[in-house]
């Protein structure tokens, strides 16, 4: 029996397949603010990365107990779950700053951002120059004729430019380090967290209709759930459960775009036995029901 050739390969002379890409970048609460000399912001933590840049003046930030003086143009990268506050102007005068919170689910990029030791990005560095160009796009006033959908497209364009700038930075870092420091690649915590991330991703994007519990993943890897949680959070900046939630909501959005699938089928595919539980969780994560999201995406 003649073996059937894969579609498109018969009579092909040469070619190359490239990696599939599925990544999410999210931007939250991007804003600029002009403040007076008495302005401060209390200590807080959040599960997101943050870029904070001084546009005019100087700012005194305290990050993880360490004082950082930001001069004009300095970009401060604050990692997830790191306590930070602003003590306001470092010159007893007013200032202007811009802040942007973001999240990226690409594992390699997250690891590199979390491993970055220097918190301040110089404005004249390659990454600093790219980021400042993106920040300027946010600072442009919207067109008077622009509607909400146009504003959203402009914001999405800026978000993807941010993702591209960070990818350029990560690639440059990898080349400079010869692919990354060998001691980090051999770090047991990084190895364990990487294995967990792959298993979490496979449990969501597979078609097994049964999501693997984090406790079962830990057991299959031969470690306690507590140690796995600690290692994963050290590498990815969030708990395995938080990371899993992000994977589920992203996969749910993709599946909801396929009108051939009912919400019940999507719920089963994502490991839910009860469609109402899936609907409630989806609305809690996104602020909209699965059917509402489907209507918006078509």
In short:
46% of the residues lie in helices and 18% in strands. With 298 residues, it is of the alpha+beta class.
What does this protein look like?
This protein is an alpha+beta fold. The protein has two domains: 25-139 and 153-176, Jelly Rolls (Sandwich), CATH 2.60.120; 186-296, Homeodomain-like (Arc Repressor Mutant, subunit A), CATH 1.10.10.60. It is 46% helix and 18% strand. It has helices at residues 107-115, 126-139, 148-176, 182-185, 188-205, 214-221, 225-236, 240-256, 263-269, 275-286, 290-296; strands at residues 25-35, 41-44, 49-56, 59-63, 66-70, 75-78, 84-89, 95-104, 120-121. The protein has a five-stranded antiparallel sheet. A four-stranded antiparallel sheet has the order 2-7-4-5, with no helix packed on it. A hairpin with a 2-residue loop joins strand 4 and strand 5. Helix 5 packs across helix 7 and helix 5 packs parallel to helix 8 (240-256). The radius of gyration is 22 Å and the shape is globular.
CATH-defined topology of the largest domain: Jelly Rolls
- Helicity range of the residues? 40-55%
The total number of structural domains is 2
Separate helix tally: 11
Arithmetic mean of pLDDT: 83
Instruction: Note the overall shape.
Output: globular
Question: What labels describe this entry?
Answer:
298 residues, alpha+beta, Jelly Rolls, Arc Repressor Mutant, subunit A, 2 domains, 5-stranded antiparallel beta sheet, 4-stranded antiparallel beta sheet, 11 helices, 9 strands, 46% helix, globular
């Amino acid at each position: 029996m003649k073996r059937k050739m894969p579609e498109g390969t018969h009579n092909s002379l040469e070619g190359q397949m490239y990696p599939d890409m599925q990544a999410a970048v999210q931007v939250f609460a991007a804003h600029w603010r002009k403040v007076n000399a008495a302005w401060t912001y209390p200590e807080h933590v959040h599960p997101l990365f943050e870029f904070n840049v001084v546009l005019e003046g100087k700012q005194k930030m305290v990050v993880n107990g360490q004082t950082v003086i930001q001069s004009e143009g300095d970009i401060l990268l604050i990692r997830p779950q790191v306590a930070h506050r602003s003590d306001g102007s470092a010159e007893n005068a007013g200032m202007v700053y811009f802040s942007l919170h973001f999240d990226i689910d690409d594992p390699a990029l997250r690891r590199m951002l979390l491993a970055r030791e220097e918190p301040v990005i110089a404005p004249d560095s390659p990454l600093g120059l790219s980021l400042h160009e993106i920040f300027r796009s946010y600072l442009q006033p919207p067109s008077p004729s622009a509607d909400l959908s146009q504003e959203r497209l402009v914001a999405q364009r800026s978000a993807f430019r941010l993702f591209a700038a960070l990818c350029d930075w990560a690639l440059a870092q990898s080349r400079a380090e010869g692919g990354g420091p060998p001691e980090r690649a051999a770090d047991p915590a990084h190895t364990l967290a990487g294995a967990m991330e792959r298993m979490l991703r496979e449990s969501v994007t597979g078609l097994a209709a049964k999501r693997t519990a984090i406790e079962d993943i830990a057991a299959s890897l031969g470690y306690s759930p507590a140690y796995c949680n600690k290692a994963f959070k050290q590498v990815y900046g969030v708990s395995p459960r938080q990371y899993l939630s992000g994977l589920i909501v992203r996969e749910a959005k993709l599946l909801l775009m396929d009108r051939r699938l009912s919400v019940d089928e999507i719920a089963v595919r994502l490991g839910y036995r009860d469609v109402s539980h899936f609907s409630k969780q989806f609305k809690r994560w996104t602020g909209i029901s699965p059917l509402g999201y489907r209507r918006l995406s078509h």
